[in-house]
Amino acid sequence: RLSAARIIDITGGRNVALFVFQLISPVEVFTRNAMEEKDTFRILLATDNHVGYLERDPIRGNDSLVTFEEILAHAQSRQVDMVLLGGDLFHENKPSRRTLYGTMEILRRYCMGDRPCSIQFLSDPHDNFQHQPFPEVNYMSANHNISIPVYSIHGNHDDPSGDGSLSAMDVLSVNGLVNYFGRVHNIEDVEVSPILLQKGKTKLALYGIGHVRDERLHKAFVKERVKMLRPADDPESWFNILALHQNRKKRGQKDFIPEQYLADFLDLVVWGHEHDCQIDPTPHDTHRFYLTQPGSSVATSLAEGEAIKKSSGPTE
């Protein structure tokens, strides 16, 4: 399912990794040249952008916005089909007007346009976006002209809170700039319904779990209260991706999510929240899925993991 191709680009002094993910039968692995473009998903992965971090700093104040713009510029130049964000797009739960405006301006500049979106949306949007007043994927709306759809879960920095239990991601969603999914409505009965997408012959089931307190989600997994719903139509024919935003490293007895708790039918897990970049996909020891941890796009602490070169990953 995964090729070994790895290309490094230097964009504005930042390390950007290109991997080739082959969304085909697990038994058959072909070279990139043998794959037909019409059947190939081109997806850019990024997590923990922390837009707005140190925005008042006279030197680093624009770093997070500049980096986020570089990521979407790379998505545009690579002509990806979609962008998948793994949470913590914003650093603050209530981003400043300057940060919110800058983020919306970047999304509009790079993700709106006349280039047709070649991905079919097959699932019921009322299942995927049930918390939204306009439950629809943005590129199928008659009111928006989207060339690169962005799918995003929330993280612990931009999670829903306060009056109306709203997130800054809801603001982007209601404006048609982001497809915000993966919100957990009932921690006692977590049902994760996939977004079903198809390009040519390739079928992709995209799952998302936005950030929940690790102890609560850990308990839900232990009590088998997390249900990953599968497509009714030939479930084995789908490539399954999960995006989640939780502690991966053990920071307490229950203050993390053990990898083996995740469903074995998954093919790729995109792990947000951990800031050290481990973007090379690695196979799990006991489950069939691969794991990729893109890490943060800006350093927000003096931890050792933040010193690793930052990457975003366009995938095919």
Radius of gyration: 18 Å
Q: Indicate the mean pLDDT.
A: 88
Shape: globular
Strand content: 15-25%
Residue stretches low in confidence (pLDDT < 50, at least 5 long) are 1-31
Q: What is the CA-CA span between the terminal residues?
A: 11 Å
In N-to-C order, the SSE pattern is: EEEHEHEHEHEEEEHEEEEEE
Instruction: Give me the count of strands.
Output: 16
Helix percent reads 10-25%
Number of helices: 5
Q: Find the structural class using helix and strand composition.
A: alpha/beta
Cross-sheet strand order for the largest sheet: 5-9-10-12-13-15-14
Q: Profile the largest sheet.
A: 7 strands, mixed
Any overview of this molecule?
The strands form 4 sheets. This protein has a 7-stranded mixed beta sheet, with no helix packed on it. The protein has a 5-stranded mixed beta sheet with strand order 7-6-4-3-16, with helices on one face. A two-stranded antiparallel ribbon has the order 1-2. A hairpin with a 2-residue loop joins strand 1 and strand 2. The N terminus is likely disordered. The protein contains 5 helices and 16 strands. Helix 1 packs parallel to helix 2. It is globular. With 316 residues, the protein is α/β, with parallel strands linked by helices.
